[in-house]
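Review this fold:
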Amino acid sequence: MRFSVLGSGSRGNATLIAAGTTRLLVDAGFSARELTKRLATVGVEPAEVTAILVTHEHGDHTRGAGVFARAHGTPLMMTEGTLGACRKLLRGSEEVRTYRAGYPVEVEELEVEPFITVHDAVDPVAVAVREPATGLRLGIATDLGRPTLQVMHALRGCDALVVESNHDESMLWSTSYPASVKARIASSHGHLSNQAATRLVLELLNPRLTVVVLAHLSEESNTPALARSEMERALAKQGFAGTVEVARPDRPTPLLDLGVLREQVGPRQLSFL
């Protein structure tokens, strides 16, 4: 299994997951043209994309979904609630497949396990994606609101995590955002802070965990260096031997080969945990 966060933040979110000939996009929050450009950066043509799975209806996760699907015949996967909220993006010619939280769905060589989150959307989910052939498992959890017991259960045992680390708590309250926006971001239906993201990953830490990608960073109330240093410092104390990456809004992460990275850190990490 290989994956790249093609971009993450308030300007757009999309993650590519590749296994064999399968190419799954989780969210399509950039224009179709920009998605095509970012896919090319990691060596993928638009026609190769097997499906686009949409986690919720907010524009930074859906902006290019309809146009891309129509241009390339790419199936869209949504819950019924998200489909209803996305009607304005669609023209009726798209192939739409619905799924339900709590029910795994196969996308060729991948198995997707969607689970409910408490973000302020109609029917938001996060996903754990498993490659049955290797047993490798990737959790993608942005726009979490708060890490519920269901979230914790769904993300246990992952080899890689893409988790939001949206804001620094002190920086958030110093921004020029209106008070109502600050309160929404910090609420239990908003976004995880660096501190909350760190606590979540520490709870999920296991000998298989190889890569943590910090996503959905605010450009006003966070910095990549701050988010990374907080996470790396906490994980180092627990003997974590893997990699911490930061997803940027303007460019993809490297295409990370989870199998290769797992082999590199496996024995060393097992000796610590």
Notes: The chain has a mean pLDDT of 92. The longest strand covers residues 110-116. The longest helix spans residues 258-272.
